[in-house]
Amino acid sequence: MFQQGAATYSGDPEASAKDAVRFNVGDTDMTDPFLFDKEIESLLLKYNNAPLNASIRAVDMIMAKVARRVTERVGDVSISFSDQLKAFRDLRNNLRQ
């Protein structure tokens, strides 16, 4: 059974490596987070507490989540997630530079 985890952000990316990752990837809206704290902490552990490297991998994870969403159409209204996916690809490329 899936249990939702915690997602927190202090608003100060200098306060912690986790907050730096959230800031770097734009995951600062805690009413609709892309990643849970434990997921970010796992990335930081894997990448030796380096927020930039963890941020690049976090964007990959977010892109995988966004890619699962399909275009929806109801009457004349259409919601496409391809623009959001492109924006995250661009962000990942910028972080890599």
Question: Secondary structure elements and their pairing?
Answer:
Blueprint: H1 17-25, H2 37-46, H3 51-67, E1 72-74, E2 77-79, H4 82-96
Task: Tell me briefly what this model is.
This protein is mostly helical and 97 residues long.
Characterization of this structure:
The chain is mainly alpha-helical. It contains four helices and two strands; from the N terminus they run αααββα. The chain has helices spanning 17-25, 37-46, 51-67, 82-96, and strands spanning 72-74, 77-79. A two-stranded antiparallel sheet has the order 1-2. Helix 1 (17-25) crosses helix 2, helix 1 packs across helix 3 (51-67) and helix 2 (37-46) crosses helix 3 (51-67).
